[in-house]
Automatic annotation (TrEMBL), chain A:
GO terms for biological process: ubiquitin-dependent protein catabolic process. Its main location: cytoplasm. Gene3D superfamilies: Glutamine Phosphoribosylpyrophosphate, subunit 1, domain 1. One of its GO terms (cellular component) is cytoplasm. Residues 388-397 have a biased composition (Acidic residues). Residues 368-378 have a biased composition (Low complexity). This is Proteasome alpha-type subunits domain-containing protein. It comes from the Eukaryota. InterPro entries: Ntn_hydrolases_N, Proteasome_alpha, Proteasome_alpha-type, Proteasome_alpha1, Proteasome_asu_N, Proteasome_sua/b. PROSITE patterns: PROTEASOME_ALPHA_1, PROTEASOME_ALPHA_2. It is found in: Cytoplasm; Nucleus. CDD domains: proteasome_alpha_type_1 (cd03749).
TrEMBL record, chain B:
Coiled coil: none annotated. GO terms for cellular component: cytoplasm; nucleus; proteasome core complex, beta-subunit complex. Component of the proteasome, a multicatalytic proteinase complex which is characterized by its ability to cleave peptides with Arg, Phe, Tyr, Leu, and Glu adjacent to the leaving group at neutral or slightly basic pH. The proteasome has an ATP-dependent proteolytic activity. The keyword Transferase does not apply. Component of the proteasome complex. The 26S proteasome consists of a 20S proteasome core and two 19S regulatory subunits. The 20S proteasome core is composed of 28 subunits that are arranged in four stacked rings, resulting in a barrel-shaped structure. The two end rings are each formed by seven alpha subunits, and the two central rings are each formed by seven beta subunits. The catalytic chamber with the active sites is on the inside of the barrel. It holds the Pfam family Proteasome. The keyword Cytoplasm applies. Belongs to the peptidase T1B family. It is found in: Cytoplasm; Nucleus. The lineage of its organism: Eukaryota, Fungi, Dikarya, Basidiomycota, Agaricomycotina. This is Proteasome subunit beta. Keywords: Cytoplasm, Nucleus, Proteasome. Gene3D superfamilies: Glutamine Phosphoribosylpyrophosphate, subunit 1, domain 1.
Amino acid sequence: MSGAGARDQLWGLCVRNIISQGLLWGSVGLSPGFGTRSCSQPVIRYRYPGSIAELLGVSSMVNAYSGRASSSNRLENSEHPDGVDLDAYYATLDDSGGHPAASFALETAEDFRNTYDSDNVVFSPQGRLHQVEYASEAVKQGSAVVGLRSKTHSILLALKRSLGELASYQQKMYRIDDHVGIAIAGLTSDARVLSNFMRQQAMSSRMVFNRPIPVNRLVSSIADKAQVNTQEYGRRPYGVGFLVIGQDKTGPHLYEFSPSGNSYEYYAMSIGARSQSAKTYLERHFETFVDCSLEDLIRHGLHALRETLQQDKELTIQNTSIGIVGPAGAHEKEVPSEGSFRILEGDSITVYLQSMVPKGTVDPDPEPASAAPAEGGEAPPPAAGTTADEDVQMADQ
Amino acid sequence: MPDGSHEQPQQRQFNPYTENGGTILAIAGADFTVIAGDTRQSEGYSIQTRYAPKVFRLTERAVLAVNGFAADGNMFVKKVKQRLEWYRHAHAKEMPLRAIARLIQTMLYAQRFFPYYVYNILGGIEEDGSGAVYSFDPVGSYEREACRAAGAAQSLVQPFLDNQIYFKNQTPAAGSSHPTHLPLNDVLSIVIDSFTSATERHIEVGDGLEIYVVLAKGRSTEDLASIRGLQELSAKDEGDRMFIIRRDLKKD
């Protein structure tokens, strides 16, 4: 058995790995088939992307051995010379699906997207990166955020979520610099890291070039940073999306940043849960935004944000925050002349909430309006109490 | 040497520091602080510029004056301002004065083995509303004081301050005692006289004078009403207020 020596060495490595990591793999059925293997091939086949170190890592090593042991009846499978169907074995391990392998090129149906979505670096046959798309799903889990701009101002409006009646509301907006602010949707921890990076970039620009960073350059810098995580093996994409507002020599701006590393400039945009409803409102009205006063712009933004609320919920001074960049509005005092980014929360937004038009009278749109109330009345009401309330969740937003 | 003897071995080395002259001064009152510095920057017997500010506003209530090696001074101020910006991001408020003082110590000591060649004087209003002056050495040793002068004319100005602010070597009139704090206009006069006198006798002092005045919240500004050329730096009427007064000094 010429291969026995190599196998023994690798087995020794495996044991060391297992012991050093303190794992017990008794449940995984080692050794029964091992000693009797007569195949002279080396134990591990390099059949999937990854380094040798990875191949010798515990789980893959042990899985290979146990796969081998439990699949000894697959000796006859001519596709897998050493008689082990590792991929099928992996598919049984957890719900993330099978391990992608080049040999699975045979499967082209969408049902098998599970096989292309474990690794960041694997395209699906449709040319999609599923991990990146899943990251965008994380953004859609966060509560809604709306951004819009006029000739003079850019504003952000965010719906804050709370973990429960006793908890405070999650902060959704961050100041990056005097002239830039962001609102987030998605994983808050990722948002902190990225907003820190943005702050560093903004400060560095002031130090090195003695001028505030242009907003598009700042957004490009995080887009480029996020793109790295979509192309490097072992790294996951950032699970947070931003709406970025800022002003520079060319006026006020609004940008969207997404985990894919794409960024676009918008007149108005919304991200997060049920943001499509807000986008519909914005699409209907965006042409009027250009010449709006700050108060009217905020009113439009609040209407758009209101569209994302679930039934029986409303915007309050606790769950809403407004970020503004641009000259001071009629209800604001003590804004610096440059119109620095500021966040309004609590009592200071009462006046804006009161300026909202009551729901239902905003857009008398014949077809959708008549259909919607009918559906709304017939749909079963949400379960009573807070347990079924989507906005009250333990998940990171 | 022509006579056959040999010179001592010589070594040349790049000197990373130079002295840029100038003088700074700060005096703390009961509810105000005055921080001043001349604007001349020199090197040896040459004047590099007649207007190079040495006194900088850090926050709404803190002012930092830097003197010694101008390149280190300017860079140090920028780095301090960056740290204050990080503090604002993290805490959504401005850094209190004594925290800034401690921060400056740690920043200076971090460069203990290649120091910032700067004598810093930090002045402003403390959290309790009192006027404060903190003075530093180049590696971070610091102390809160009522007044301090630093720079080229320190040896001319500090004794004057000891006499006029601390009333050293002065006996009060019978039946009274020296005031613990002086009124604002008296302090401003002392500052201006210090600089005009230093300009007379020290070549590195002159050209112009910038005086920053920081008033605690609620303190009236009528003392400053008669000052010519006063400029307000603070944005709001409520809260601590900051003004700057510019004067010329002799250019010779």
